[in-house]
């Protein structure tokens, strides 16, 4: 997967849509051996800030410990994944290369899955625990799997993960097709979406 495989996220924060990256989510998840739905739902959860490279650079200037890429990965996590899987590139590449960011996130979820016990409390699905691990770290994920209650931030992340599940599934069902971006006004005055030719 190279940089040519995914367009740069839009500069306008409101224009960013994780569904536009469905094709690279499917490829990255398959390569890592994890569920594309899990990866796509995590991307929806991590869509709370703009992901254009320029905006991420400004974000890091303001907040040096910021996370990068479509999946908001922190440097320490990236370095662990890079060493484990022999990835090329640097942490800063996550902000400039959406396909690399998705691939790295999928590999991190794979690593979390390997460390999750086979048996866990029934109140969470395996994917929910992996998402909590993505957000709070492996040690906390394992604690939640044993029944330790998550704190307020983790509970909020889990609520959003559950709420985004259906949107993520729809994005994958659409197969990574481009969103309808041009609106045409028909003779009856109704605005209807129109797909660009090509």
UniProtKB/TrEMBL annotation:
Bias kind Basic and acidic residues: ranges: 176-191
Region (Disordered): 168-198
InterPro entries reported for this sequence: Lysozyme-like_dom_sf (IPR023346)
SUPFAM superfamilies: Lysozyme-like (SSF53955)
Taxonomic superkingdom: Bacteria
Protein's name according to its UniProt entry: Lytic transglycosylase domain-containing protein
Organism, as annotated: Streptomyces heliomycini
């Amino acid at each position: 997967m190279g940089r040519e495989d995914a367009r740069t996220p839009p500069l306008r924060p409101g224009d960013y849509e994780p569904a536009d990256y469905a094709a690279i989510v499917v490829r990255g998840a398959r390569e890592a051996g994890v569920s594309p739905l899990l990866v796509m739902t995590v991307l929806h959860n991590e869509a709370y800030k703009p992901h254009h490279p320029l905006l991420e650079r400004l974000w890091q200037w303001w907040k040096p410990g910021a996370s990068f890429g479509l999946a908001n990965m922190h440097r320490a996590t990236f370095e662990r994944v890079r060493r484990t899987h022999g990835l090329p590139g640097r942490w800063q590449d996550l902000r400039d290369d959406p396909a690399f960011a998705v691939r790295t996130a999928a590999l991190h979820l794979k690593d979390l899955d390997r460390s999750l016990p086979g048996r866990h409390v029934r109140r969470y699905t395996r994917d929910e625990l992996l998402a909590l691990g993505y957000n709070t770290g492996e040690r906390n994920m394992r604690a939640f799997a044993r029944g330790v209650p998550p704190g307020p931030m983790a509970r909020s992340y889990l609520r959003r993960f559950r709420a985004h599940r259906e949107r993520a599934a729809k994005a994958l069902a659409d197969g990574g097709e481009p969103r309808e971006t041009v609106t045409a006004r028909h003779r009856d005055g109704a605005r209807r979406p129109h797909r660009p030719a090509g």
